[in-house]
Amino acid sequence: MNLRRAIIVLLFSIGIVAVAIFAWVNSSRRHRSDNASTPPTDRAPAAAALESPPPEAVGPFYVGVSSLDVDANERAGKLFEELSGKLPKEPAIWTNLGIARLRLGDSPGAAEALDKAAALSPQNGRISLLLATLDEDAGQFPRAIERLRSLPAPDDTVLYRLGELLGRTGHSADQRGQLELFDRIRQHQPKNPVIALNRARLLARMENKILLTEAINDLEAHRENWSAAAGRQLESAKTAVTAGNFRSAAAELTFLQNLVQSTPAYQAGLIALGVTSGSVGQPIRAFLYYRQPEIVVAAADESLHFDEVGDPLLSAPPDLSLALELGAKSGSSLLSFSGGKLHIGAGPELVLPVSASSAPAPRGRNTVCAVDLNGDFLEDLAVVDHEGLKLWTQNQDGRFTALPPTGGLQSVFAQPGHGVRAFDYDADGDLDLLIARDGAPPQLLRNNSDGGFTAVAALASFPEARDLGWADFDGDGDGDIALLDVAGRVLISWNDRAGAFTAPELVSESPAVALTYGDIFGTGEMDVVTLDRNGVIRNLHFDRNTRKWSARELARWSNPPDLPSAFAKQRVSLSVADLDNNGAIDLVASAGSASAIWLNEGAAKFHHLDHTPALFVTSIADMDGDGLLDLVGLTDKGSAVAHTRGTKGYHWQSIQTRSLSTQADGRINSYGIGGRIEVRAGALLTAAPIISPYTHFGLGDHDTVGIARIVWPNGVAQVEFDLQPDQAVTATQRLKGSCPWVFARGDDGTFHFVKDFIWRSPLGMRINSQDTAGVDQTEDWILIPGKFLTVHDGAYEIRITAELWETHFFDHIAMQVVDHPDSFSAIIDERFVPTKQPKLEVLATSRAQPFAQAQDQSGHDVLKTLRTIDGNYVNDFPLGEFQGIARDHWIEFQLPDDASADQPLVIVGEGWIYPTDSSLNVAISQGNHPPPQGLRLEEYDPHAGWHAIGGELGFPAGKNKTVVIPLPSESLRAGHRRFRLRTNLEIYWDQLGWAVALQNAEMKTSPAETLTAELRHRGFSKLAAPDRRQPDVPRHYDQLSGPGPKWRDLEGYYTRYGDVRELLGQTDDRYVIMNAGDEIVLRFAAPALPAAGWTRDFVLVGDGWVKDGDFNTANSQTVRPLPSHAMRHYGGPPQPLEADPVFQQHREDWRNFHTRYVTPSAFDAGLMKSAGVKSEGGTP
Fold first, then answer.
1. Contact predicate 944/931, CB 8 Å
2. Packing angle of the helix pair 125-137, 156-167 (nearest 10 deg)
């Protein structure tokens, strides 16, 4: 991938127009939105479409669009290539095919498809923009400009892009052209801050004092949205203008623009100009030639009615009846409380004693909770009432065993309560319990994953709760708590991550009696839904930009029962579910023995059903397996199920979500509770939170889910295609973080993965429930064997890629050339040792020799596997409960006779480690789990047996890393020849042997001059891990899975693309801030080759930090706080950028380098980018 390829990203970027080079490369992963116009909206074709598309083509078209939305570009390419043969007249298909090919690096194929699209729709601005991108990629800037100028009716997106191109020419005539373009946009968008700032900077360069003074004054209107620092920056610009110092004014305005990029108003301005976060080229989401199918939910099934069936097993009316999913198979069981006992299912034999008293007790529908507490994929039971909390674990035979309180929690369990909910409050991969206590704040019980719990006071500031919801209400990736207290107030507590929550804030002053949540409007956003005392159902929506709540009435229950009285008796409920399977969420309210239902007709219109069951609805579940959700609850006579019946016969899908396994994972809870699912079925888009093992979706007239995107509760996204009914979706196991990857250009001219880099300095990484890792080991040396790196065009070339959920801070990168005789090896000890970093030096050893014998902990001979570095690993050891932790295992070896005790002997090995992460470390530290143990060297004494020698030896610091461990001379002189390397970490050895450490060996080490260092966007490598016990590494550098975000980017300022050599020259806290999907391309001078009989190897030297997005990593949502070498620990709340010590010390770097503002909006949107789009596009 060359510089020209990177321009594809640059030219779809924020585009601070026409200053120095650093300005036009001030880009983030932002690209032109296909929904943007004047203002951005979806436009109906100007001419009537000729015909409707074939019905069998509609579904694949929309699945292809969604595939592009989630960067499944290979899938999208195949779909649109097939569609292009069936519908060759449709320009949207050719355009989307071109986008897929463009993202996959096939520029010729992209040009071919886009040329066909342009021939069919020559006046379409969106297609012209993509072709202009290809022109620029080929260096044909005049052709790109002319292509856009020739459009007869360009919209604001085209005008803004054309202005960017003109700004790069530097011609005064083009500056006047730019100004004209900005003024045309201002007519449509007079309050857009992006245009206001760009126009002011342009006038400063034109030295037009009159118009510049007016433009500066116009910026005052935007000042209320800015920080105090931005306001001071505006004053500096004013001063420069008054003094007639136009160069200074332009610089001050540039810095002002960089400072305000993070504001919601500026982000909205970018969107209005067609600039959105995401991949190169956004898809055309609707047909242009054919008549556009309506993208609406199917008509509500107004014939819906209910067949009521009672429960004949109970002799007396129960206190409560509800349905819960208890098994691994689809289907719910009926549970009823009667006489102090809990009856489970249809058989009378499953009865659990709950209360000592058989007298009826008030029980709300939250009295019982089904939750897998121990990760065995069987739902256990938590029940709370006036006698406290009781737990039962489910056995394989379907029966239940009581789980008594341990750890001194008897008094906590005995506290009376009226509700229990399960959620993973600390994101450690298991489900915790929240108990609504009588007359007291909720009690949080942290699950220790070992059968025990710990009482946590994290929610001590909460009022007494009646109901709660757990979902991501502010769109920041983690679950928040919506609370209904006993006074009817609706409150919100925001998740600050790492198990911390804010004090509850008031959301609505209208007293409510019931609360639920869901995606009511089909946008993918989770809203709170309430029922108030007067029967009004409202949707409460949190605006992520203004951070304010708004209320919208959805429906009104005419003549409801006495709702305040029902609230006091815990006999009121509100639920959302798609009862008629039309693809939209319906409303179900219930109180006393009455219910009311409103069917969602789409576009926020609800149809009230005239006839509903006389039932207090406690649960909604498919009790008879017909695909229609039924109502479960209580009538005046007892327990009942109201089976739903309709006439539309709409399709449906039930999706089961599961974690990978109960062993060697531990990243998420068994069924992904707390995550969400987005589905595309033909033209239908919908989303739902994961609150149980199965998530139900109505599909309307569509018979299958074409694409589903699951965002697991740890923030990792996964895409599945063509799901079958009831198909289980298992979470893939992929590392979230493991540091940047190093590729080297070899003899064949291609780049090969070598190993990872700067592994030792993770910022804010939790090592247990309380502590974070130190960050003092910032320097890293790795050896690049000479076979990986050869001279091309007079230089050595290294590429360092950011592939995982991480932000990298590279302060220094250099390379050393190491020449040495062929007779020995030059190696580096690439271990991570927490207590003391191994000395960073190049060691000389004899060639590694095999042991006389080698076996694993099971006695299996592994000598052959350990002889050479060949990608075959010793991996036959039992895995543990958590990813990265195994059962105790070792390599036992015996030295041969020729390993003389008179020489300094070392163990030399190469291997890799499957690491834990912050959340896993938190989980491991909470219960009775074996703590991580690094490598330990043990020797065998014939008299004393096996015993440890030396201290903590650490572990290989990543993938393909070399370890060098000295063998104690006293042990060798004592005649001990049997040793073993022991650990409980997931360490996989490729090669392990012995060598002699050589003293005063002849080596010539010299620095290689850094010729160029360029930061650019690349995308993500396509990984090929054969199985769980193979490292996640790329097989081919040029094979990409896609350019778009795979993770929720850490928000903040990153280094703009282009030359970054100035930042990498020395260790000085002036660093490259590198986002996932970026790469640094380095070229080093190549000194004369060594003489015959000598070998050349290389040392890559780096200094910096890595920060991942794990929910338990400190400040994992943002780039800040900025790290420095003065730090020894990383944490504390981030300060505003202008108050950060590193920013204050190197302020100019945020003028010249760190001008690319990145947000996670593209990842957050997922499949829902198309939500609400009905038509678009212009004249074919």
1. no
2. 20
